[in-house]
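Quick note —
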Amino acid sequence: MQNSTMSAKVVASPLAANDSTWFIKQLQNQTDTALSEPIYRQLLRHIIQMINTGVLTEGASLPSERTLAEALNLSRTTIRKCYDELRELNYISTHGRAGVMVKSPTRIAPEIGKLKGFTEEMRELGMQPSTKLLAREIVQDRTIASIFNRPSTATFLQLIRLRLADDVPMTREVAWYDLTLAPALEQWDVVGSAYEYLQQHCGLILDHAEQTIEATMSNTHEMLAFGFEVPNPCLLLKRKTYTTTAQMIEYVEGTFRGDAYTYRINLKLKP
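Predicted structure written out below.
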């Protein structure tokens, strides 16, 4: 049976994150040997949660492997495995005598309000966009057809892509495009921007999009894509894109990693 303390809420004072004694207390009673999950992963999950929720901020000092192992009555190998994975995930760094320090991942903050693709968005932020194509299929899907308001026999181009900025994975994106409206897409080599291809090769002019944003946790596919060892908070964006003739050409579900991506909105008072 899972230890009930595993879900305990973490509370910290502004200076507590730099206090090794405080940090150790947060990890005490947070492991359960009855679980199939290895102890080092239980610690890893809890520390990542503290970093992602802002309880541990960038620059906060963590105790050494030896100190933490002795305080928690665990082997140093267990703590080393935990710290090694935190380093690989870019959550901590080691600075010689300065010890182990929290290293919060850099966040990018695009502005909401303009219809643009990932490629254009990253270029505007001064970052180099790139894409890894994970899957490309011509599909018939009744659920997707109903979203597009097409017959169940309609065909769509389905793309599953990992989108990167400066070689860092940012979003795992699943997109569908209506081949009835843009048959030339069937020949697209999936290089560059889909929006540019739609306008330059399919003769379509994009007009607007409807987009929703909701919180979610990364699933197995997204954990693999982002290099997460445990589920992490993400942003799920769902977008329907329309042409100037009010026809829906694209439906996208993109999962953005929450540790490196945030949206910025400018709000103005009415004159």
